[in-house]
Design a protein that fits this description.
Layout lengths: L3 H12 L2 H4 L11 H12 L8 H15 L3 H13 L5 H13 L3 H14 L4 H13 L3 H14 L4 H13 L3 H14 L5 H12 L3 H14 L4 H13 L3 H14 L4 H13 L3 H14 L4 H12 L3 H14 L4 H13 L3 H8 L9 H14 L3 H14 L4 H13 L3 H14 L3 H13 L3 H14 L4 H13 L3 H14 L4 H14 L3 H14 L4 H14 L2 H14 L4 H13 L3 H17 L9 H11 L8
Helix pairs in contact: 1-3, 4-5, 5-6, 6-7, 6-8, 7-8, 8-9, 8-10, 9-10, 10-11, 10-12, 11-12, 12-13, 13-14, 14-15, 15-16, 16-17, 16-18, 18-19, 18-20, 19-20, 20-21, 21-22, 22-23, 22-24, 23-24, 24-25, 24-26, 25-26, 26-27, 26-28, 27-28, 28-29, 29-30, 30-31, 30-32, 31-32, 32-33, 32-34, 33-34, ...
């Protein structure tokens, strides 16, 4: 074993060796005195010293267990190391780290305090103690240790970064910016502070500060692809696609083969309105990647930009090039299914062999596609085989019942669902049976069935939710509201109920502040959910805030393309801000989807309502 102290001593000895002093001054490299002082300070620390070979052995074992994810085992090994090396600040700091990873912040703090008492100038202990205290929301104490760490090693970036994060946690972003500015002054050319704080602020929605920091980071290090990518994402999120694409092009100058950057650039080009430029980025990306998932990601990017033809072309080309890859057939089926091209979807899913790990899902999806096409016999054969292999699969049973109903056998569908409820009752099967009864004009019977189920399990949040949805299907908005409130009384963070309640309130024009609060909470629990953003947009619409409604509904439509309800709402919002052409386009697209998939209408009379809206639009005067 050689400690860092011994190593530094050997280096110093070499500097004063006879041969070195005799060398000509012109050939001797200049000595960086500051670097030498740092090396000597590091050598004087306790980090490299162990009281015994046993202590060092246990320390090495702790590191092996740490990297294997066995943090409890690492704690045990460190305790053995400390048994013969009590007070070693490195061992105490590592022990504090392991406790922190186990979530035991009290023990972590205790060991780290021992470390700083034993070695007040030990930088790593102060930094980690600052982290632990920040996590425990003890900000004042955390700040003391982090400032001490900065004073110990002003040219080390970590303490600055943790201190900046602390100020963010305290709700003081301006102080965080001052910290990274101090880091930049102490470490010219170091951009990690600007980058990390910029990314953190962007995640928190503080786009103005985030943009300033990321622009500064990009100016200091034009080759930082991560910074450029984050800055481009910020531009995209703030509806500046051309600037996003330009920034990504700069990133590609540094790393022309970055797959994620190429994908982001293609998406930005689509948002900027250039399918040609997007295709160039995507073609380059596909030439670099042999992963079957990549054509799917490109295809879904085209779909989000309302370019279904390009999406299908990408997948068809990928399937021709990789005949033996079953996942490509599966992914192609998913894309065609999303586009409501059920014949193409069924054909693609048929290309997934039985030995594939996605075969079971592909078979059920193929059965649904065939059922929607009216090919009932083939669909039912597939469903029977799927249910035979997985008799407890609730989703398969519910889909099988819906296919029987489509094929003109509602009695068999009802029987199949009741058989499932007799053996394995679940909220999903109750919902399927209630919906089946409702479609047969037996809505009151459906409500009675669900009330009995809820009476048996009054705190079953999912059953309560299903009962609320059944009331809404029956046109009983008040009953639906009451049931959704009952769900939240049992499960306050039931995201679907929060969203449903907010949407019902918006529809009724009641307490729009509560409606917004409920939907926003649902989005906190399940961010980037198209249906929830649609609800938020509808709250804004009902409030008369049409500009914000357009923004939310456009994002909802991006996340859930070709959903008729979202498209109708988006058209309504466009109409209110006098964007008539876009309103007409949204409504027409909703009608196209309904023609392919009539079951997606919500409510059932949606198609007629859309046609009336289109007819009511003022016609343009011919150009003169």
């Amino acid at each position: 074993m050689r400690s860092s102290r011994l190593l530094v001593s050997a280096l110093l000895a070499a500097l004063v060796a006879p041969g070195v002093l005799a060398a000509a001054p012109s050939r001797r490299p200049r000595v960086d005195k500051e670097a030498m002082r740092e090396a000597i300070d590091a050598g004087a620390a306790d980090e490299g010293r162990y009281a015994s070979s046993a202590s060092y052995t246990h320390y090495l074992q702790s590191r092996l267990r740490h990297h294997a994810g066995d943090h409890r085992g690492a704690v045990d090994a460190l305790r053995l190391a400390l048994a013969s090396d009590d007070g070693n600040p490195l061992l105490l700091t590592r022990l504090g780290e392991e406790y922190a990873r186990l979530g035991d912040l009290k023990r972590a703090e205790r060991e780290l305090r021992r470390a700083v008492l034993r070695a007040p100038a030990y930088y790593p202990a102060h930094v980690l103690l600052g982290r632990v205290l920040t996590e425990s929301k003890r900000f004042a104490r955390a700040r003391l240790h982090l400032r001490r760490a900065v004073s110990l090693k002003p040219r080390e970036p970590e303490a600055y970064l943790v201190l900046a994060q602390l100020h963010l946690e305290m709700g003081a972003p301006d102080e965080a910016v001052k910290v990274v500015a101090a880091q930049a002054q102490a470490l010219p050319g170091e951009t990690s502070g600007y980058r990390r704080l910029g990314l953190a602020l962007a995640e928190r929605g503080d786009t103005a500060r985030a943009e300033r920091l990321l622009v500064e980071a990009a100016a200091k290090d034009p080759g930082d692809v991560e910074v450029l990518t984050a800055l481009a994402q910020l531009y995209e999120d703030t509806h500046r696609p051309a600037l996003a694409e330009e920034t990504l092009a700069r990133a590609l100058e540094r790393d022309a083969d970055s797959r994620e950057v190429l994908l982001a650039a293609g998406r930005a080009a689509l948002k900027a309105g250039s399918v040609v430029r997007a295709k160039a980025y995507f073609d380059r990306l596909l030439s670099l990647s042999s992963e079957p998932e990549m054509p799917v990601r490109v295809a879904f990017s085209y779909l989000a930009a309302r370019e279904p033809g390009a999406a299908a072309e990408v997948l068809d080309a990928a399937r021709r090039g990789e005949q033996g890859e079953p996942r490509l057939a599966y992914y192609a089926g998913l894309v065609h299914e999303r586009m409501r091209r059920f014949a193409d979807a069924a054909d693609a899913f048929a290309g997934v062999p039985p030995e594939s790990d996605v075969y079971a899902d592909a078979r059920v999806r193929r059965a649904r596609s065939l059922s929607l096409l009216g090919e009932h016999s083939r669909a039912l054969t597939l469903y029977r085989a799927a249910l035979r292999e997985s008799p407890d699969d609730v989703d398969v049973r519910a889909q099988f019942a819906r296919a029987l109903e489509r094929g003109g056998a509602p009695d068999r569908a009802e029987r199949l669902l009741r058989e499932g409820l007799a053996t394995s009752p679940s909220a999903a099967l109750y919902d399927a049976l209630a919906a089946t009864l409702h479609r047969q004009g037996r809505g009151k019977e459906a409500l009675a069935l669900l009330r009995e189920a809820v009476a048996r399990s009054p705190r079953d949040e999912d059953l309560l939710y299903v009962l609320g949805a059944a009331h809404e299907r029956q046109g009983d908005a008040a009953g639906a509201l009451a049931r959704m409130r009952a769900v939240l009384a049992v499960a306050p963070d039931h995201a679907a109920a929060l969203n449903f309640l907010g949407y019902l309130l918006a529809q009724a024009g009641q307490d729009l502040d509560e409606a917004e609060r409920r939907v926003r909470r649902a989005l906190e629990l399940r961010p980037d959910t198209g249906a929830y953003l649609d609800s938020l947009g509808w709250v804004y619409f009902r409030r008369g805030d049409y500009a914000r409604a357009v923004d939310a509904l456009e994002r909802a439509s991006t996340l859930s393309p070709d959903e008729p309800v979202i498209l109708e709402h988006l058209g309504d919002a466009y109409q209110r801000v006098a964007r008539m052409d876009e309103a007409a386009a949204a409504w027409r697209r909703a009608l196209e989807v309904l023609a392919l998939d009539p079951e997606s209408a919500e409510p059932p009379g949606q198609r007629a309502a859309l046609e009336r809206k289109l007819k009511a639009l003022p016609t343009r005067a011919p150009d003169r």
